[in-house]
Amino acid sequence: MNQLNQYGQPVGDALPDWQPRPFPQRVTLEGQYCRLEPLRIEHAPALFAAHRLAGDGSSWTWLLREPENDVEAFTAWVTSVCELKDPVHFTVIDNRTQSPVGTLSLMRIDAANGVIEVGSVHFSLLLRRTRASTEAQWLLMKYALETLGYRRYEWKCNSLNEPSRRAALRLGFQYEGRFRQALVQKGRNRDTDWFSVIDSEWPRLDNAFRQWLAVGNFTADGKQLQSLESFRG
């Protein structure tokens, strides 16, 4: 709750023990259904093949770049970003097949203020709407908020990207508003919607993720018994 300073003006809560947070590292994050590995050049051929399964470029519409036409061009993109400090790109590895099936990153990293964003999410058809896709998001959120101790975890998307907006809300992000005419993306206007999770919300979200991901929450043919939202009450 807000406090008053010596002039009687409202000011934010004091954070006397606050210290800048550690910068994300290129670590492996292990899960039950998948693991996140630092994006590497060796992942490129399998990732390119996984994305090609869609048969068209619809999964690229909301990304900031256009799809590469061949594996050599895609490998060149991976080479250009895989060692960056911001964004820090991760590959999602399916634990059943041991194959790369998508990518996501930690980006716009503000260690001084404890603010970080999940972005560049590009999941292939092999990953979308699976337990592994939810677990991948949980693993990265857990790393940022719990392991590294960031205070704020952001999700931003094109306001017209309804699947991304739904995903953010399903995962427990709070909608914060729309930044109008925030970008010119691929020659078109982009309004950007902002969502966030803050550290005080993490324990409840973490508990919900763990319950949803539990083997007992799924039938033998993989259908969920309870939704992720229901575990948050």
From TrEMBL:
<dbReference type="InterPro" id="IPR016181">
    <property type="entry name" value="Acyl_CoA_acyltransferase"/>
</dbReference>
<feature type="domain" description="N-acetyltransferase">
    <location>
        <begin position="34"/>
        <end position="191"/>
    </location>
</feature>
<keyword id="KW-0808">Transferase</keyword>
<dbReference type="Pfam" id="PF13302">
    <property type="entry name" value="Acetyltransf_3"/>
</dbReference>
<dbReference type="GO" id="GO:0016740">
    <property type="term" value="F:transferase activity"/>
</dbReference>
<protein>
    <submittedName>
        <fullName>GNAT family protein</fullName>
        <ecNumber>2.-.-.-</ecNumber>
    </submittedName>
</protein>
<dbReference type="InterPro" id="IPR000182">
    <property type="entry name" value="GNAT_dom"/>
</dbReference>
<dbReference type="InterPro" id="IPR051908">
    <property type="entry name" value="Ribosomal_N-acetyltransferase"/>
</dbReference>
